[in-house]
Amino acid sequence: MRTSLSPRQQAAVERLETVARNENGHTRHVAGLALDLFDGVRLVCDFTAADRTLLELAARLHDLGYAAAPRDHVRAGVARVLRSRIPDLAPADRRAVAAIMRLHSGRDYQPALRDPLFRALPRRAQILRLAALLRVADGLDNGHVQDTHITRVRVGPRRIRVDVDAPHWPRNLLVAERKANLWDDTLPKPRALRAAPRPGPLPL
User: Fold this and answer.
1) What single DSSP character describes residue 146?
2) CA 111, CA 44: separation in Å to the nearest integer?
3) 71 phi and psi, to 5 degrees?
């Protein structure tokens, strides 16, 4: 994964992960998936390099509240991030990271939009698009086994096709489909998630 975080941001995230007893395997894998999606749709969404940093931070920190409050881990994680000082990140951008995190969980994202966090949120449309990518990426590691990989993202004339290799936990693809509703509501083109073609047996 090509990181967008500065060394100081990386160190700050690692400190937060340690203090919160974060499940690093899952969140770092989700971050990699989210950035693969980002890089594939960047041009069609007019994303910037700063947007990539926001998404990576949100993905790395999206389950930060789980160890302390499993049943309300989203709000707990958001609260911790809003209290934290992440270097090279303006207060408005820290709020944007928290907003992306706030939307990562659950099939229906609409109730989360009523959170005061979204009132007068700068660049709201782009933040929702970043959250849409995180939702799909999180769904692709629903099994928390880090076996799912994105093999290709192709922007077609009508859809954005995402080829996914999920050999051991195919349910990840089904969960990602259910969590792709925000993608379909905010990105310029709907997604088509599909299992990547697997090579057949070699001819005898």
Assistant:
1) -
2) 28
3) -80, -20
Cα dihedral value 136, 140, 145, 146, nearest 10: -80
C-beta separation of 186 from 75 below 8 A: no
Instruction: Write the pLDDT tens digit of every residue in 137-154.
Output: 999 999 999 999 999 999
Q: How far apart are CA 132 and CA 126, in angstroms?
A: 10
Global pTM?
0.94
Residue 101, Cβ neighbours under 10 Å: how many?
28
DSSP label at residue 115:
S
Q: What is the distance between the alpha carbons of residues 63 and 2, in angstroms, rounded to a whole number?
A: 21
User: Phi-psi bin for 14: left (phi > 0), alpha (psi -120 to 50), beta?
Assistant: alpha
Reported in sequence order, the residue ranges of 76-166 that DSSP labels E, i.e. its strands, are 149-155, 160-165
- Measured N-to-C along each axis, helices 49-61 and 124-139 cross at an angle, to the nearest 10 degrees, of 50
- Report DSSP state, residue 142: T
At residue 69's C-alpha, the angle toward residues 67 and 102, to 5°, is 100
pLDDT at 195: 87
Banded model confidence at residue 204, pLDDT cuts 50, 70, 90: low
Spatial contact of 17 and 80, defined as CB atoms under 8 Å apart:
no
Rounded Cα–Cα distance for residues 167 and 172 (Å): 10
